[in-house]
Design a protein that fits this description.
Layout (H helix, E strand, L loop, with lengths): L1 H21 L20 H8 L9 H5 L4 H21 L10 H14 L1 H6 L9 H4 L8
Length: 141
Amino acid sequence: MKQWNAISLGVLVGLGSFTFVYAKGYSYLLDDPRTCVNCHVMRDQYDAWQSSSHHTVAVCNDCHTPHALVPKYWVKATNGMRHSAYFTLGNFHEPIRITESNRRVAEHSCVYCHERLVRSIQGHDGSLRCVSCHPRVGHQD
């Protein structure tokens, strides 16, 4: 019985390692925006980002992950698991849409980088979403 447990564990680790290397999993631990186009559904967003005003000051993770280390990798891990399942099973919406939790992360990033400006907006109580007025800011067409 112990032998089968060891074999099963070995197969699981081997298959997981192969998948991690084959899918370039290590690249998701970095901040290189080219990682986002590992999946074809992100090509339009990547191309639009390259021509946006944010191209020179922010990469994907600056807007789409929290700035603190643990929350950043938590978001990366949960998104990675969800994206892996979606793309493996082929059950994702195209064009890709942001989830509500990821929208909140991006909104927080807007305020994080533009805090002085946000504070200067009279009557801004946090209920107004940045993308209400700036819907394509990071991904200009």
